[in-house]
Write a sequence for this structure.
């Protein structure tokens, strides 16, 4: 295990603190996909948080540039003296406040009405900050809620009287969430839960507050930085997509090949069996939040599948988007799963009770997340949650349906094997597309695609959800999304295009497509729609850009294929610019997709 | 060399990111590059972790040079 493992759960806070310079060097050597301007507005000092957040963002492929407010100037920087923050132009603002920043606690004798007024005043102060930030910048706001009050300890009165301290914090947190819900770009960072997980006595450090104005002790700072980074990542659509599971002693107790269906431990009959059921329920819940499930097991396929016919099995075979059971090394099976699902290895999380298998995957496939789950099923879900790999800022219908898109793809592949030509296959699919400008319902998915798509992506520009929203509302931009369905099912929203109208031309800033619909001629249908939109504006010339990355070689000749002329190419081919003059009699390129509707 | 200084030196090397740094009782913010009020917080916390102790509010002024640190750590660990 290397030094970087200190950053994984259970976070080795003292080591991270001491070795931060070394960690920063190691992480800086990795390529970052996204640069991000992050402002920290603190109700406490933020120097330590900034350094920890730097490490955790870099680890997730985000290179931050920071702005920090002076101690406890979070309100002023956002609302009053706005020049400095304005010059920085933040993409993300983290409002790092805590129960230390509560202006006034009620008296224990206050009536519910008096307390309600205090709650409203406190939350209004934060809402004013969000309003201002929303008006000034198209940025994401990460807002800490309030952590547990350390004092006083648990008592009936403090929990139940309207003016009791714990009760007051609960009311504040409820009101904060309600107010955030009325703002488009405010995400609540749940430090209340973080403080509970760690325990308030470890979360807080009174000396460090009085001496250094640090909101939390060292462990709390590390946990907070970790989860802030994951929340920011989630807002950019960087979230793991697939949980790959071992079977024996991971999803049930015992070895099915030896013990047989009747011998494995699953169900209410034993403590162990109950714990395995609970972990299966947790996996099913992840699936309902849009996470794909897959199996990688060393077993005979028939034995492995039989396990799910157990009467107490919570998971069914149909819950898995990929299922591999054989005697091959697991690294090659994980590679196969990623390929089958058309996702990157960096989308996988691998859970196996066997430390040797975990070590193998860590060694062979560094992109795969391998949590240190131990060998006790009762801990698995807890460890996975602490890592918050599957953090999302919202769950769309799209996410939940994704699992079925992938199983539909397996049927499609089987069908394509029986056709004489690719055209024949395409026409047999009876494809229908919906191509239209961005709309509210799909913005989350657009952001996800913009930040995750690496292969079919001409410019690999990354966007925050706030930036996408601004573009969608700006009449200087043409935006298009495409959904594709066929006789096997719905592929969902799979392609995105953004073009800017300037100097009488349309500049294609972004064009990407999910690899699960490659070679379906959807790019032609999208291009036809772009041309039509250009014609409606009286624009005759399109300008396309190709910015090379290590992963987007497949679209290097994309514009040439569409009939664009090369107008400029960097000496090292890292960048090229292409133009297309729309002929008066433009003939549409798409033939395969039968029906195109405009949303 | 004082055994506490022997334990402190690698902490200083990590925190100030200077693998060849050597310290003695006279070392202070004036002699160690990068020792400012912000790195001081990291240094104090790292020492607390390494020695398994906590410095009280009235003790922080004793931490301004290595000699003061050594004496305070010795006093607190005995």
């Amino acid at each position: 295990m290397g030094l970087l493992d200190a950053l994984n759960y259970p976070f080795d806070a003292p080591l991270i603190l001491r070795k931060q310079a070394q960690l920063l060097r190691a992480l800086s050597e990795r390529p970052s996909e996204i640069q991000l301007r992050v402002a920290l507005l603190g109700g406490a000092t933020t120097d330590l948080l900034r350094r920890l957040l730097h490490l955790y963002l870099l680890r997730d492929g985000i290179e931050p540039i920071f702005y920090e407010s002076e101690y406890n100037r979070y309100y002023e920087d956002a609302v009053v003296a706005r020049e400095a923050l304005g010059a920085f132009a933040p993409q993300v603002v983290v409002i790092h406040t805590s129960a230390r920043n509560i202006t006034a606690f009620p008296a224990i004798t206050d009536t519910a009405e008096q307390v309600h007024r205090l709650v409203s005043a406190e939350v209004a102060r934060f809402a004013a900050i969000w309003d201002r930030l929303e008006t000034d910048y198209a940025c994401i706001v990460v807002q800490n809620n309030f952590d547990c009050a350390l004092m006083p300890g648990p008592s009936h009165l403090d929990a139940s009287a309207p003016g009791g301290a714990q009760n007051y914090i609960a009311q504040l947190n409820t009101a904060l969430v309600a107010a955030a819900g009325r703002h488009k770009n405010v995400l609540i960072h749940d430090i209340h839960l973080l403080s509970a997980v760690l325990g308030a006595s470890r979360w807080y450090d009174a000396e460090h507050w009085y001496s250094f104005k640090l909101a939390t002790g060292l462990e709390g700072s590390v946990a907070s930085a970790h989860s802030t980074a994951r929340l920011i990542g989630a807002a950019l659509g960087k979230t793991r997509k697939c949980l790959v599971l071992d079977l024996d002693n991971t999803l049930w107790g015992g070895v099915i090949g030896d013990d047989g269906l009747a011998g494995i431990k699953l169900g209410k009959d034993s403590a162990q069996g109950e714990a395995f059921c609970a972990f299966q329920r947790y996996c099913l819940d992840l699936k309902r939040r849009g996470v794909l499930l897959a199996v990688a097991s060393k077993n005979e396929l028939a034995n492995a599948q039989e396990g799910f016919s157990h009467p107490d099995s919570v998971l069914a075979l149909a819950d898995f988007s990929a299922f591999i059971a054989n005697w091959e090394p697991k690294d090659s099976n994980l590679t196969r799963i990623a390929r089958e699902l058309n996702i990157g290895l960096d989308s996988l999380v691998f859970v196996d009770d066997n430390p040797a298998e975990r070590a193998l995957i860590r060694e062979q496939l560094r992109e795969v997340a391998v949590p240190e789950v131990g060998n006790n099923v009762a801990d698995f879900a807890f460890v996975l949650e602490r890592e918050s790999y599957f953090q999302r800022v919202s769950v769309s219908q799209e996410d939940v349906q994704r699992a079925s898109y992938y199983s539909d793809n397996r049927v499609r592949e089987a069908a394509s094997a029986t056709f004489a030509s690719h055209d024949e296959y395409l026409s047999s699919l009876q494809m229908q597309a919906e191509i239209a400008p961005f709309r509210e319902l799909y913005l989350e998915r657009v952001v996800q695609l913009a930040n995750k798509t690496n292969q079919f992506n001409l410019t690999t520009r990354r966007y925050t959800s706030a930036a996408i929203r601004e573009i969608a509302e700006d009449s200087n931009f043409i935006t298009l999304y495409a959904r594709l369905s066929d006789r096997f099912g719905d592929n969902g929203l799979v392609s995105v295009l953004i073009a800017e109208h300037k100097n009488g031309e349309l500049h294609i800033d972004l064009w990407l497509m999910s690899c699960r619909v490659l070679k379906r001629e959807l790019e032609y249908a999208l291009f036809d729609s772009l041309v039509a939109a250009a014609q409606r504006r009286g624009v005759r010339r399109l300008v396309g850009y190709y910015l090379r990355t290590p992963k987007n070689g497949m679209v290097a000749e994309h514009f040439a294929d569409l009939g664009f002329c090369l107008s400029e190419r960097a000496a090292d081919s890292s960048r090229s610019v292409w133009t297309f003059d729309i002929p008066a009699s433009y003939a549409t390129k798409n033939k395969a997709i039968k029906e195109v509707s405009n949303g | 060399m004082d055994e506490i200084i022997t334990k402190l030196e690698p902490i200083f090397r990590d925190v100030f990111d200077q693998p060849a740094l050597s310290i003695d009782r006279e070392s202070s913010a004036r002699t160690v590059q990068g020792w400012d009020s912000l790195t001081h917080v990291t240094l104090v916390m790292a020492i607390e972790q390494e020695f398994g102790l906590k410095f009280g509010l009235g003790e922080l002024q004793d931490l301004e040079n290595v000699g003061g640190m050594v004496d305070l750590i010795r006093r607190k660990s005995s």
About this structure: DSSP finds three helices and no strands in chain B. The radius of gyration of chain B is 11 Å. The mean pLDDT of chain B is 93. The first helix of chain B runs from residue 3 to 15.
